[in-house]
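Rotation project, supervised by the postdoc (A.L.). Task for the rotation student: set up a whole-complex structure prediction and record inputs and outputs verbatim in this book. Inputs entered:
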Amino acid sequence: MPDGADEAGGYRARVAAISTQNLAREFEGGIVAVGGVDLEVAEGEIYGFLGPNGAGKTTTVRMLTTLLAPTGGRAVVAGHDVADDPGAVRRKIGVALQEAALDPLMTGRELIHLQATLHGMPKARGHELGDALLHRVGLAQAADRRVGTYSGGMRRRLDLAAALVPEPSVLFLDEPTTGLDPVSRQAIWDEVTKLNDEGTTVFLTTQYLEEADQLADRVGIITDGRMVAEGTPAKLKSQVGKPHLEISLAGQDGTSADCDEVLARFGKLLPAKDGLALVELERGAADVGPVVRALDEAGLAVASLELVEPTLDDVFVAETGHHLEGEAPPGSSGPADGP
Amino acid sequence: MRSRSELSSIADLAANARVVVALGRRSILQTARRPQLAAPLLVFPTLLLAIQTGGAGGAVDLPGFPEVESFLAFMLAGAMVQSVLLAGNSGAIALAIDIEMGFTDRLFAAPISRFGVVLGRLSGTAVLGAFAAVWFLAIGFLFGVTIQEGIAGAVWIVLLVAASALAFGGIAASIALYSGKASVVQGLFPLLFVVLFLSTAFFPANLMLEPAGTVAEYNPLSFIVEGIREPIIGKFELGDQLKAVAAVIGIGALGLALSAWSMRARTRRGS
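Outputs recorded:
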């Protein structure tokens, strides 16, 4: 369980960095992009906001970052209401929006220095901090090149550095790794983890299950503008089923009566599949060692085994009836997210 | 002694002023680095000036044409106003591109006045306008035009042209803010020429056919053109200068009001 989480996988006892009640946004023509979202993100938490394209993630982020006025409900970020005191919110947040909104004609250094000016920093301080941030994200060498010549990963890192200029207490990252190669993605993940270790609250939207699973202390799943599930990744996954073990026995195809007898001691037997014996483990990974020992004692040699955990996609399927990755929601004709 | 809130307001004002300067600087650099934005500012008006001066120079002999040193001296004001109209349009195209690529979101997510963001862009346009004024004064000087009102007249021209650029830029910026599309702002280009040719930029109103002559006489652009032209041709009249300043203020106020309205509409719409 992540530091600070309570037994239910929540952070309710700690101060909320982001809090929304029935937050909603309707666009012209009656298009409901966000239809009443309740969120509570604690200080120091990484909150993964997971959902397919058009689910309402970006619209929610735009409301939380004061870029879009809500049409219903209320949101408080870093202690200030986004509608009543947007200026105070902007002073405390860092924002890296989708598709890295960078001017290709500016150099990386010019952009960071401009960002410092936008946040009211004296010139000398802005330059000092900006240069340190460029170094931090590994762009010191490329700082005087125009952004138009940067790779996708470099742009994302520059965007992240720009978002860190105000030394934010809450950092919003809208799909920070979409379209990046695995190395660049890992670099962003490492930096996000480091920032969080330093105390920054991170609100991260993503459509990648692995990203949410790896980074987030808690995950909120949104689809069609509504939250359908929320909790730690482990808790959400445990709700849809227990991990199961897939076992291949040496010299044997599939299972056998002896094998079933042993495996049944550890949990519910599942139908054999592709020559593998399957058992749902009551105690998860803790049962793997005992299973192997029991099979060995029964004279059954294990050729290979794999512990298969439920995924967040399983959670998504359980809540919505369709997969998050690689499958559009039934009946969806386009993104519901606002521009 | 100043209260804490007064000091805070002064600090906010200073921070916003620094933002306006920084965004103005960016706007100028953007124009310098993107040839398609820089070309309308100097290249087109200079070419048109050369063509018109070379091809229609005999117009100065027409009865009723103002007494001028040369046709080039008469045309300089028109070239300057054409340049600032196009500079305002180019600035608005750049603003629309910023909106399209999401750069304005970066600016609007910062703790500064949103109006400061627009003012920053316009201040860059004003500096480019001043540069255009100096450019055309230099061309005039090179080809023998004497600024009849001397250095003071030249300084006044530069100020008036810079203020006009800011004012016209405000109108164009409001369209950029409302539409958020560079293609829409680009669509203004032909309209600018209609407005320009229905003014006294390139021909005196008294020599135009009706109703163009009447339209040109009351076109606010004509007041500005005359305000710029008089110090060059040596017919400086306070009343005409006040009309020019009033036209700049009126267009500027309209541009700022429309920009503020467009910005509110954009926030409300969310796009």
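Student's summary: DSSP finds eleven helices and no strands in chain B.
Supervisor addendum: Chain B has a mean pLDDT of 86.
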